[in-house]
Write a structure and sequence with these properties.
Chain A: This is ATP synthase gamma chain. The structure holds two protein chains of two kinds. Chain A contains six helices and seven strands, in the order αβαβαβαββββαα. By secondary structure, chain A is an alpha/beta fold. Chain A has a single domain, classed as ATP synthase, F1 complex, gamma subunit (Pyruvate Kinase, Chain: A, domain 1). In chain A, the strands form two sheets. A five-stranded mixed β-sheet of chain A has the order 3-2-1-6-7, with helices on both faces. Chain A has a two-stranded antiparallel ribbon with strand order 4-5. The radius of gyration of chain A is 29 Å and the shape is elongated. By secondary structure, chain B is an alpha+beta fold. Chain B contains two helices and eleven strands, in the order E-E-E-E-E-E-E-E-E-E-E-H-H. The chains are: A alpha/beta, B alpha+beta.
Amino acid sequence: MANLKEIRIRIKSVKNTRKITSAMSRIAAARLRRAQLAMEAARDYGTRMAGIVGEILSELEDAASLHPLLAEGQSDAVAYVVITADRGLCGGFNSAVNRQSEREIKALREAGREVHVITVGRKGRDYLRATTQVTPLSHHTAPNKPEEVVDVAKGVANELIALFEGRWELEDTTGDGEGDTLTGPKVGEIRVVYNYFKNVITQEVRDEQMLPVPMPEPIDADGDGVPDEPREAVREAVRAFEPETEELLAHLLPTAVETAVQQALYNSVAAEVAARRAAMDNATDNATELIGELTLQYNRERQAAITKELMEIIGGAEALKG
Amino acid sequence: MAEYLNLDILTPDGRVNLRSTEDEASSENTAIEVEGVELPAALGEMGVRPRHLPFLTPVVPGVVRFRFGGQDRRMAVGRGFLEVSKDGTVTILTERAVRSWEVDTDAISSERDEVEEALQEFRTAPIDDARSMKLKARRAWLDAQLRAAQA
């Protein structure tokens, strides 16, 4: 049986933990609203942009042959963009993405394919380094604030396109001091793994193809099973560029990739705060419950000690009367 | 009488407040009615007036001009798309937008000088060199902001 002092120390420590978790939960709750608003604004932009991209691509004939970013890559290698947080204490947020990426990377490796990784967020980098011995080609700090997303997305998107087109350059590490660049790996497919913000309490790990830019499903808004006619505006846009359709695509596709990366990042940022809030809320509740149990135990012990002392005094007095 | 079209600029940061010159939170933030708008399309500067055909075209970094509230307004935009819908709504989807009165001219011009200097190194590099392309894109965006602030 624990003695009184031990229980007292335990209660104090749990109380301190609860202070931290409840503060973190409140901070996350305040940030959540902002992140959620930012994400919703970005979702507007993202869906409109994806819509335009989709409409134009489905209007083009044999689009895959028109631009390298649409064509199947010639390389067998695959690259993963793994988006996690820089910090922990957010429930299963990081580990869900990490485990999924680890599983896929290992499966691909077993199939004899080369796998490269670009990480956003320290947690993903550390985990993958430890479990799959992969060194990320490049690493970005996870965006903390919604304002940082656009810049990070731009950087990542540029890297992805370079990687896919085989323009990736490695810093010269041979140490001859000439600083010339070596040609790096080339990949035939790029996927992104991230947490999708479903709602405030649910995050969902998503794994999407980034490059080659996926061809859209035929749009069928009225649901009659026959793809809708493309809008006149889209046809007009495509026609305006003929025969230089590549020029249109050269504008469209990088924008599409960048928007897709942005969407993933915005979702991840919002999902991170949501996950942290839920996790810290739970932790605070658990701490409160634990404190209750410990206090009860403490009072019982104290009462038992008093009773024991009383018994001893009475026993002593009885003996003296003897 | 005068006809109007609805102008709306969407960026990943949300809808740009075109209504007021104050900061974002001040007033309701919806599409505004304008008589026309000029913007930098990929095939050249273009203007949109009411009853334009439904239309879709890429937008390159440059300056968007329109008249609202009795004032000429300018705005620097980045790459993106223009969409004119059937009901006469003009939507500019762009990666970023800065209103001309928010441009910090000094900071931008000094950054432009730096970019220019960095580009000198790539004069002999192949035209599709990744880093020089990145710098050129940056320069285009800085130029757009400067032009929005000056013109």
